């Protein structure tokens, strides 16, 4: 299949733009089209069509028991798929939508049961991106849209990531430039009391609590033995090709020392090592690693360690950048779990095969 590509910068979006009309037509015909959101690129399909939604799972190689988030242009449209919109949902929409917050609500059965994996609940979100919102209006139906990557790989934050994974497998992609937040939405289940975060993301627990009071995090996210409530979180995810080992120690000097010691051992075993770090620590590794730069080791920085929003934005792109560099193993650093750090560490821990104290 030829994958159509449309270049549509956010500031050129207007209703009835010819590219949006073309993409919307394909979507209404039951094809899948990738588009930018403020979190990551999504792979959209008509949420009312089993046949269309089946193409998402096929293109991604995604397990069919992992339900999809449905995307809408406003809270009124959300009412099409839920039994009712609880006042709490209306309040959260007022405060955080459009934005990186997904709500779990009671399902009225109208959406494709493939998209909801047959659950009695449905995941809904209003994305805060001009291209996504204009496309949703043009289609006139909600779009089921997971991240537009092959299952298991880091999510796409650039059109090039989508094409690397899915070119030839999807009908089209709207290239709206790099995404802003870089990590997926927060998934909040408000059918539970108190509301529960099933996946940390772009909206922090702290900012939710300011608006709705107590919020708990699915306890399974901090233990390895209990299955997480969001079905998708039990699968490996976000991983670069080479195995990633994370050093959990947050003390700056011990962190550097432990990472360098791990890397040195691998280098002495003849491995080519990738270091996943931040600007502040690059000089330390350049000075302390044995062997030659570029040959025995390569360093990629996520940006300034103090700027967690920037780290989130560059995380997936940086993880993907190790693949063409052909490293055998990657050693990465950890971040404090406050604010957006919770989402960063959730993704890094899932990407990592091994976490050292
Ligand atoms: P993705 O589409 O890759 O961003 O992943 C969506 C996440 O939301 C996955 O972890 C799903 O398991 C989760 N999810 C979707 N629908 C539901 C639901 N009804 N209840 C709980 N989790 C859900
Ligand atoms: Mg995903």
Task: Summarize the helices and strands and which ones pair or pack.
Blueprint: E1 4-7, H1 18-28, E2 33-35, E3 42-46, H2 50-60, E4 69-71, H3 75-78, H4 87-96, E5 101-106, E6 121-125, H5 130-139, E7 143-144, H6 159-166, E8 172-175, E9 186-189, E10 196-199, H7 205-212, E11 216-217, E12 244-247, H8 252-268, E13 273-277, H9 282-288, E14 297-301, H10 308-321, E15 329-333, H11 341-351, E16 354-356
Parallel strand pairs: 1-8, 2-8, 4-6, 5-9, 10-11, 12-15, 12-16, 13-14, 13-15
Antiparallel strand pairs: 2-3, 3-7, 4-7, 5-6, 9-10
Helix pairs in contact: 1-5
The site of adenosine monophosphate has 21 residues, from strand 6 and strand 10.
Structural account:
The structure is a single chain. With 357 residues, the protein is an alpha/beta fold. The protein has 2 domains: 4-221, DHBP synthase, CATH 3.90.870.10; 244-356, Rossmann fold (3-Layer(aba) Sandwich), CATH 3.40.50. Helix content is 31%, strand content 18%. It has 11 helices and 16 strands. The strands form 2 sheets. The chain has an 11-stranded mixed beta sheet with strand order 1-8-2-3-7-4-6-5-9-10-11, sandwiched between helices. The longest helix is centred in the last third of the chain and has 17 residues, at 252-268. The protein starts with a strand and ends with a strand. It binds adenosine monophosphate and magnesium ion. Adenosine monophosphate binds at residues 66-69, 104, 116, 119, 121-123, 146-147, 184, 187, 198-199, 229-233.
